[in-house]
Design goal:
This protein is of the alpha/beta class and 259 residues long. It has helices at 3-17, 22-29, 33-45, 75-87, 101-111, 130-136, 161-167, 193-204, 243-251, and strands spanning 19-21, 49-52, 55-58, 94-97, 123-127, 142-146, 150-152, 157-159, 172-178, 181-183, 187-190, 206-212, 224-227, 234-237, 255-258. The protein has nine helices and 15 strands. The longest helix has 15 residues, at 3-17.
Amino acid sequence: MSRDARWKALLELLVERGRLEVEEAAAELEVSAATIRRDFDQLAEQQMLVRTRGGAVVHGVSYELPLRYKTARHASEKQRVAAAVAALIAPGEAVGLTGGTTTTEVARALAVRGDLASGSPALTVVTNALNIANELAVRPQFKIVVTGGVARPQSYELVGPLADGVLGQITLDVAVLGVVALDVAHGAAAHDEAEAAINRLLCERAERVIVAADSSKLGTRAFARICGVEALDTLVTDAEAETETVRRFEEAGVRVITV
């Protein structure tokens, strides 16, 4: 296992459990305790975790794993969700894409759609996510609009009043929303309040709102509320979503597509 892969695995385990002991992590990753100690020390230097006697704990109470350290957890589910979301978008539409791993997969699914290979433009994509803009900018048939703002290194998203200024001047056909958590009672949420504010504004500027979320996000809560379920038109999730959870969203007026 490479160092990068090991670090990603360590950080995901840490986010999942809140605390990791050296011996426990070494057994999980099948490497030596000395290697894990070295990894913990180097990650602590980057403020990715807090070293403790014999292990490590997450850095902060509300911890967000940076996008660059996220592995392919739920990868197949996210790709199925992304393909289904992309199929809901018509040629020529203006599409807002928030940041996140699932919405990045939506951007990739749109990029390879045969019916979007040409057009003037085939799609207009408005995003506050630098990584999504970077991936789609090489597609000349797509018109890419980046919101502006201050970049968050955890998610590559642009936030702040500069982004507000751009979004206040546009209208979207559809907003595709990536979430950290989605609950019928508490709505859609993100880790960061500034990120949530931009995502909320993208939704407000759109005719319809699609949430792209694998089933692990459903029925959970996070710190910063984006919007209530009444603002959502469609939820696309994977087939592992619990039947009762799906029913509750449908009763709240949200169309649910499971893939």
